[in-house]
Design brief:
The structure holds two protein chains of two kinds. Chain A starts with a strand and ends with a helix. Chain A is globular, with a radius of gyration of 26 Å. Chain A is of the alpha+beta class. Among the domains of chain A are: about 30-65 and about 215-395, PurM-like C-terminal domain (Phosphoribosyl-aminoimidazole Synthetase, Chain A, domain 2, Alpha-Beta Complex); about 435-450 and about 590-760, PurM-like C-terminal domain (Phosphoribosyl-aminoimidazole Synthetase, Chain A, domain 2), CATH 3.90.650.10. Chain B has one domain (about 5-225): Rossmann fold (3-Layer(aba) Sandwich). Chain B contains five helices and eleven strands, in the order E-H-E-E-H-E-H-E-E-E-E-H-E-E-E-H. In chain B, the strands form two sheets. Chain B has a nine-stranded mixed sheet with strand order 2-1-3-4-11-10-9-6-7, with helices on both faces. Chain B is globular and about 40 Å long. Classes of the chains: A alpha+beta, B alpha/beta. The interface of A and B includes residues 266 and 270 of A.
Chain lengths: ~750, ~230
């Protein structure tokens, strides 16, 4: 396949740039500010060449440089103690964090956003989002073993949702399925603020032997730089600087359509197997994936992380188009490419492995003892820059931030005055209304398009609270993964909301009996140039950093996505938190839902009257205001401890965390997913039935307990001070809640399952 | 000496590790075969696993059917060596002319991944001899192009000759004609099916152990023949 670059301009060499200081350059169109362009001229002592300008503009974009978030993200480093770092083999700053899980095994995971491309072209945007995060994991020396995705779109019945959601789901499925990675689940959230600003956050997890850990650096003078994988073409050029870092608005959005990259999962699958064979043969010194900013990023990051300079010859790059300029080659975001550092004596063996997998590979340069990254094209020098100035010394902004004036009013608008149901019939009707609402209805329409079985290590996947994966057939060790964020809570209080996102993710992992050990985050916000958005961001980051410190689990990496707003309307602040947990024996992981008929149903944790920001307030009253539920991390840690200890002792036959929709929806989901009813009372206390059913108090879990284990569980709860109440028993064909009209499980299944298909298949 | 069962890996094959595991769970030795191989290493049977061989380019299974390893597989199958094609492997066997009909896009046009009940319609093939006739088994289905189609005459012949090996126990979610999930060659040695028995061999990671029956069935046949 050949695509054509039209009207190739004359080569802009370093010599030419030095000789033509007055030459006008389109820095503004490339997304650079006046002062940023001036700074580049200052660094180089001349104007940049076209190729250099392309490199700086993509690498200094918000997406690559974190220029607006850097000052806040330091909080994660500052709050991480040596004790928290104990199991970290690699952390923030690498392609992905790596955690030592014992027995010589390590796990690496990361979440990344691909939001803007997924609005422009949902299928390819989402597909390449998966592809990109998978390459990040490969670049650590790991075999990618599973993916998850957090999707946020406009209201289910909004016209554009019918374009965006099916496209995104087919893209995630197409790429992940074809790559042979089980999808463990994630989130699908509908909210008006995501119409026009869909969020596609993809998580990948990989497994490696600790000795196979690979980091991105280019050291050793004379070592060769090998570019391998797909050919470099004209797709995705300018994607980073123009697409990911500008707000969609009138007159700016549509003409940039061609910048979305096109994914080929088959090429990536072959690339994975090829890389693993290269690692196993010990043929790789350093490795870097090519993602946003393409070769600009890979060469400058490899060089600046190494101990010397680097020479690259663009004439050696295998191209898909004719007449590509150096700037285009350097900023192309063609997918499925990797860049490796290889010792000269291993080059032949390296190329042989690539040949076996039919992967195109070319030596494009080498590590030098110089200081600079020098790039040649057509026999001329077109780039000659200190690599750090491109990769790491970009601008850093302390953007103004201010608590929005309307925040007080928002928090004052509580649910106190909203009508609450009281009769058994009213309560039952609202339980079903919630269960069938787009917010809480079954996500099977989405998740049935994803392969969850491939590779044969999936012990649990959606609708389980956490995905559970055996790390290898030779071991019983497992990992549990969950991603979460209740962005409605974050709007009401970004600091508490971010803490609650961590708490919920931890609780989801704990529901499986796993011990939470590490965090990856994906911080999705509006424009950093809006002080109110910047305040949300600062609050959320600080809240999350402190919460991680309180729980003693480190943030190992993540991603920031700004400019998720249309004109002046920003998305709900959405700091998505992924938590990784460890399971000593996957056979002892706690199943999702209810246990067997006759098992007791217990509620762990305390329920307060906390309906502000709840699904009940949203679905029944279309209300969003007040203060989110209180986040008590000590209570979360205690609950997680009870789950892990209880799971190890085999006390639980089922579990489900309480979150959106409160106790009512947790009971419904247990009944629906396990296809069995239960007879339960509401938890003891002074609460009215609506609060008892729909409150979204944190640190709660619904567990099923075989009769023989109840005394043990009671003792365990007393030992650690865990509040707990026995609500009733599993069994029957109906969900019979004391004070609520009984609900037939078969009817609940239909109510819960029908909502998404009724709209998306219409 | 235990039976040796080959598991082919094409570029883009995904379920080869699962198929090899199923072979081992059944008690046989799994022998990896590479798409460029022209020697089957004297294996006793071959599994063509699922995935997206060659990225489904051109047409699912079309390129793999022409790859070097398939020459000897087709030859051995014609001499009676048991061959099992799962999902993409089924598509490859159809493209290679070992099985009639074709697999096309699901009627709903979407990939479907769910656990599904099948009825074993023919318990006398090399890969189903261990099942009771009419047995119901639960295995995962996961495919976007799983709708079995053939002309009416072929369908009638398959039905008449008892070559419908597996049928969906509920209306086929992919729109497969006559709810056909799997078929076999005239000698019952070559079987192809869309659902994935290799993902139902361990309750930890699948819906149970029903799928193991295919792999133990062929072992029984191989041992009996030896």
């Amino acid at each position: 396949m050949q695509d054509q670059a039209t009207g190739t301009p004359p080569l802009d060499t370093v010599a030419n740039a030095a000789a033509t200081p007055e030459h006008e350059q389109p820095w503004a169109a490339l997304g650079l500010r006046d002062e940023e362009y001036a700074r580049i001229r200052e660094i180089l002592g001349r104007r940049p060449t076209d190729a250099e300008l392309a490199m700086y503009s993509v690498m200094w974009s918000e997406h690559c440089s974190y220029k607006s978030s850097k000052v806040h993200l330091r909080r994660f480093g500052e709050t991480t103690t040596d004790e928290m770092r104990r199991h970290l083999l690699a952390g923030i700053g690498e392609n992905a964090g790596v955690i030592d899980v014992g027995d010589g095994w390590a796990v690496t995971f990361k979440i990344e956003s691909h939001n803007h491309p997924s609005y422009v072209e949902p299928h390819q945007g989402a597909a390449t989002g998966v592809g990109g995060i998978v390459r990040d994991i490969m670049a650590m020396g790991a075999r990618p073993v599973a993916v998850m995705d957090g999707l946020r779109v406009g209201p289910l019945d909004a016209p554009d949702t019918a374009r965006v959601l099916p496209g995104v789901v087919s893209g995630v499925g197409f790429y992940g399925n074809c790559l042979g990675l089980p999808n463990l689940g994630g989130e699908v959230v509908f909210d008006p603020t995501y119409a026009g600003n869909p969020l596609v956050n993809a998580l990948c997890v990989g497994v490696l032997r600790t000795e196979d850990l690979h980091l991105a650096f280019a050291s050793g003078v004379g070592n060769k730089i090998v570019l391998f994988g797909a050919r470099t073409g004209l797709d995705g050029i300018g994607g980073v600087s123009v697409l990911a870092s500008e707000t969609f608005g009138e007159g700016t959005g549509r003409k940039k359509l061609p910048s979305v990259q096109v994914g080929d999962p088959f090429a990536e699958k072959v690339l994975i197997e090829c890389c693993l064979e290269l690692y196993a043969a010990g043929l790789v010194v350093g490795i870097q994936d090519l993602g946003g900013a393409g070769l600009s990023c890979a060469t400058s990051e490899l060089a600046s992380a190494g101990d010397g300079g680097m020479e690259i010859d663009l004439d050696q790059v295998h191209l898909r188009a004719e007449g590509m300029t150096p700037a285009e080659i350097l900023s192309s975001e063609s997918q499925e490419r990797m860049c490796a550092v290889v010792t000269p004596e291993n080059v032949e063996a390296f190329l042989a492995v690539c040949e076996r997998w039919d992967v195109t590979a070319r030596v494009i340069g080498e590590v030098t003892d110089g200081e600079n990254l020098r790039i040649h094209a057509g026999g001329e020098v077109v780039v000659d820059v200190p690599p750090r100035t491109v990769a790491h010394d970009g601008p850093v902004y302390s953007r103004p931030f201010a608590r929005p004036a309307a925040q007080d009013e928002l928090q004052a608008s509580t649910t106190a005055g909203l009508a609450r149901p009281g009769t058994p019939a009213e309560l039952a009707e609202q339980v079903v209304r919630l269960a069938s609402s787009p917010q809480l209805a079954s996500r099977a329409w989405v998740t049935e398009q994803y392969d969850r079985y491939v590779r044969g290590n999936t012990a649990a996947a959606t609708p389980a609270d956490a995905g559970v994966l055996r790390i290898d057939e030779s071991s019983d060790r497992g990992i549990a993964l969950a991603i979460d964020c209740n962005a409605r809570f974050c709007l009401l209080d970004p600091r508490e909301g971010a803490r609650l996102a961590l708490a919920e993710s931890v609780r989801n992992v704990a529901a499986s009996g796993a011990r939470p050990v590490a965090v990856s985050d994906c911080l999705n916000f509006g424009s950093p140039e809006d002080p109110a958005v910047m305040w949300q961001f600062a609050e959320a980051v600080d809240g999350l950093a402190q919460a991680c410190a309180e729980l003693g689990i480190p943030v190992t990496g993540g991603n920031v996505s700004f400019y998720n707003q249309t004109a002046t309307t920003a998305i709900l602040p959405t700091p998505v938190v992924g938590v990784l947990g460890l399971v000593d024996d996957v056979h002892r992981a706690v199943p999702h839902g209810f246990g067997a008929p006759g098992d007791a149903v217990w509620l762990l944790g305390e329920t307060a009257d906390e309906l502000d920001g709840s699904a009940w307030a949203g679905v029944v009253h279309e209300h969003l205001g007040g203060r989110p539920p209180r986040c008590d991390l000590a209570a979360e840690a205690r609950l997680a401890g009870v789950m892990a200890d209880g799971a190890a002792r085999g006390l639980f036959s089922g579990a489900h965390d309480l979150s959106d929709g409160g106790l009512a929806h947790a009971l419904v989901e247990c009944a629906v997913d396990s296809r069995v009813g239960a007879a339960v009372t509401l938890p003891p206390g002074e609460l009215d039935p609506a609060a008892a059913l729909f409150s979204e108090s944190a640190a709660r879990m619904l567990v099923s307990v075989p009769a023989a284990a109840e005394a043990d569980l009671a003792r365990l709860c007393v030992e650690v001070g865990q509040p707990a109440a026995r609500l009733g028993e599993v069994g029957g064909d109906a969900l019979a809640i004391d004070g609520v009209d009984p609900l037939d499980v078969a009817e609940l299944v239909i109510a819960h399952a029908s909502t998404l298909p009724s709209v998306l298949d219409a | 000496m235990s039976a040796r069962i080959g598991v082919i890996t094409f570029p883009g094959t995904l379920d080869d590790v699962d198929a090899a595991r199923a072979v081992r769970y059944a008690g046989a030795e799994a022998v990896g075969l590479w798409h460029r191989d022209t020697d089957l290493q004297s294996v006793d049977a071959v599994v063509v696993p699922g995935g997206f061989s060659y990225g489904d380019y051109l047409r699912a299974g079309a390129i793999a059917a022409q790859s070097p390893v398939m020459g000897p597989v087709v030859e051995a199958a014609r001499r009676g060596m048991p061959v099992l094609g799962i999902c993409n492997g089924f598509q490859i066997l159809c493209e290679a002319g070992l099985l009639p009909g074709a697999l096309v896009r699901n009627t709903g046009l979407r990939f479907i991944c769910r656990e599904i009940r099948l009825r074993v319609e023919n318990a006398d093939t090399a890969w189903t001899a261990g099942f009771e006739p009419g047995a119901a088994i639960t295995v995962p289905l996961k495919s976007g192009e799983g709708r079995f189609v053939a002309d009416e005459a072929t369908l009638d012949r398959l039905e008449g000759e008892g070559r419908v090996v597996f049928r969906y126990a509920e209306p086929a979610p992919n729109g497969a004609l006559r709810d056909i999930a799997g078929i076999c060659s005239t000698d019952g040695r070559v079987v192809g099916l869309m659902p994935h028995p290799e993902h139902a061999i361990d309750p930890l990671t699948g819906p149970g152990v029903d799928g193991l029956g295919l792999f133990t069935s062929v072992l029984g046949r191989l041992t009996a023949a030896a």
